[in-house]
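Board notes (copied after class):
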Amino acid sequence: MKFLLKFVETNKYADDVMKGSLYMNPLSYFWRINYGEPVGASNSDRFDLFEGTYLSLNKEDIGLDKEFAEVIGTNPIVRLSAYQYINMFSTYHSEFNVKSRELIVPKMDTMNEFGKLVVVIINEAEFRYRVRKAAEKLDYDCIFGDVNYHAANDRGKPVSGNMLHLIRKDEIDINEVASEKNLLEHYDCFDKGNKHAYQREWRICINRHNEEISPYRLEIGSISDIAFVVSVEMLYPALFDWSGRITAENPLIYLPNFDGTVTRETFKNNVYKLRPNKGYLLTTIM
């Protein structure tokens, strides 16, 4: 069975989550948060230029100088501008194997930057239902599920080593650089680089159908009946105590990888319509 861990920084944030008031930053927040901080500093690993990727392209077919193309280590990425308008709520996706009694939980030293308190949501199915119900009431597009992590690659071949990420300063018309000839992969707001894979992220994405770039609170009602709060230091003992009382898993509960008020494809297409054909070109130099 799977369950969710929401790391938060203060008692106030924990109380808000328990009340079902889900604070959601715009996705574009993560394009800028603590930009330039050294790795390991507070929030440094939340920064991600590649949030909201849309396409990957063959680097030799996008009009770059041959000399420059040769120093690009990975496939150039197009980030969709319209993803700046969606809001996002993130958790760590944990798992408990009832038969083997194995717990999959984060190493505490890897999650310190995300907060000193943890809201443990033990009934993922019910949590999903309440999120979907709240979004439906507001007529918002909502999709939730696991993030897919991808290794950096050059036309299908994995690459590794030190990398410098670059972003073209001016916004581009996507159809001027992307075509059937050079398009390699399609992505959406559930795709990230594998440097973040340790986060085992399960996220909720909301499209409010407007061009507002601001935090938002999705109110789903109290979750105190399906969650509890614990400090990071006491997370392991609390989970071992809780899981020790579980003797069987309900075989009738099936949770699809992705769910919500619309499909992933519909969500992506509706976001695109907010700012059609606009994006940013990102490259990586080895």
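Comment from the instructor: The chain is about 20% helix and 35% strand. Residues 2-285 form one domain.
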